[in-house]
Amino acid sequence: MLLKTSSQRWFGLTMSIIALLLLVCASIVYGYTDTSWKVAYGAFTNFDGSNEHIIIQSVRLPRALIAVAVGASLAMAGVLMQTLTKNPLASPGIFGVNAGAGFAVVVAVTMVSVGSLQAYTWIAFLGAAIAAISVYVIGSVGREGLTPMKLTLAGAAIAAMFSSFTQGLLVLNEAALEQVLFWLAGSVQGRKLETLISVLPYLLVGWTASMLLSTKMNVLSMGEDVAKGLGLKTGAVKLGAGVIIILLSGGAVAVAGPIGFIGIVVPHVARAVVGIDHRWVLPFAGLFGGMLLIGADIAARYVIMPQEVPVGVMTAVIGTPFFIYIARKGFSGK
Q1: What secondary structure, in 3-state letters, does the chain show?
Q2: CATH number, domain containing residue 146
Q3: In the predicted model, is pLDDT for residue 101 greater than 60?
Q4: Cα gap 141→218, rounded to integer Å
Q5: pTM for this one?
Q6: 286 and 268 Cβ atoms separated by less than 8 Å
Q7: Bond prior to 310 in cis (omega within 30° of 0)
Q8: CA gap 39, 25 in Å, rounded
């Protein structure tokens, strides 16, 4: 744990906010179209209708804000998932959220011929919510009720089922494959600000509720029996955490597609910095998640310029070594 005292943590939080703002500014300035910090500043203070100013206002600013919101949401959802399941590799993928959202979009494209990105957003949100609720219900069946192992197995089963259905539909409809492939790879490119605004209320509720639940998550993390002994209504806390996860991960996937690894990697980084207190882990994870995704998005613009790599591919490249490390450490006990 790097930051041990409250004053150190507040200082770290302030520095993280500043770093995130600098990355937002860098995302607005750098890209295929050559612009400068002066040009970017002028786009907001003295808009002249030039191509550079239009790109900055209508393309890069929404892209930066969406990256921050999606990264923060996935990271905070990952913190809650890992605490809830006691699984160091828990993420929106293990809850079946990504698979459910992807399947819903593919069904809409292949069977209803939906082509609007705005429509994708709501369809994906619906699919993500259905998948997460299904996992929660299946994981709660039985005398023991909801347990980490049952929740993890239910998530893996639902994710595998929806992924198989998605692949089957795409094999039968090649046109649909071309239409949704970029979305399925996970990307913030081409997303409009209206897309973020449409799900922002759900994300705000999720961010706020996760902080309100942070103290109870601290108690729950001590173990089921200890939490019950301290008078915690564990069933209500788990249900509340599940709803928050649906709001955060469902909203993020709806906006940017299934972006992986942020929900796995960032919570561990946040705990390494501030410890296991969810009152600090959640805000730090949100900031680190936004920083990671926006940094990956900036890098994605330069890898094969003038083409762009989907940011989901970049997060996979960044996150895979860390995933292997956590898997070895988490399951070997070393």
Answers
A1: CCCCCHHHHHHHHHHHHHHHHHHHHHHHHCCCCCCCHHHHHHHHHCCCCCHHHHHHHHHHHHHHHHHHHHHHHHHHHHHHHHHHHCCCCCCCCCCCHHHHHHHHHHHHHHHHCCCCHHHHHHHHHHHHHHHHHHHHHHHHCCCCCCCHHHHHHHHHHHHHHHHHHHHHHHHHCHHHHHHHHHHHHCCCCCCCHHHHHHHHHHHHHHHHHHHHCHHHHHHHCCCHHHHHHCCCCHHHHHHHHHHHHHHHHHHHHHHHCCCCCHHHHHHHHHHHHHCCCHHHHHHHHHHHHHHHHHHHHHHHCCCCCCCCCCHHHHHHHHHHHHHHHHHHHHHHCC
A2: 1.10.3470.10
A3: yes
A4: 25
A5: 0.89
A6: no
A7: no
A8: 12
Per-residue pLDDT, averaged over 113-125, amounts to 73
How many domains would you assign to the chain?
1
Low-confidence winner among 177-186, 206-215, 267-276 (lowest mean pLDDT):
177-186
Answer yes or no: is 321 within a domain. yes
Q: Is 1 part of a structural domain of the chain?
A: no
Instruction: With CA atoms as reference, report the closest residue to 169 among 124, 123, 215, 106.
Output: 106
Question: Does a structural domain hold residue 168?
Answer: yes
Any domain includes 255: yes
The span from the CA of 69 to the CA of 264, in Å, is 17
pLDDT at residue 139 in the model: 80
Residue 277 confidence class, pLDDT cut points 50, 70, 90 = very high
Cα dihedral 294/82/140/201 (nearest 10):
-30
> Domain range spanning residue 142?
6-332
The dihedral built from the CA positions of residue 98, 202, 214 and 321, taken in this order, carries a sign that is positive
Note whether 90 and 268 are within 8 A (CB). Answer: no
| Structural tokens at position 263 | 């929900």
Residues listed for the chain:
334
How sure is the predictor about 132, in pLDDT bands with cuts at 50, 70 and 90? Answer: confident
pLDDT-based confidence at 217, cuts 50/70/90? very high
pLDDT at position 333 is: 44
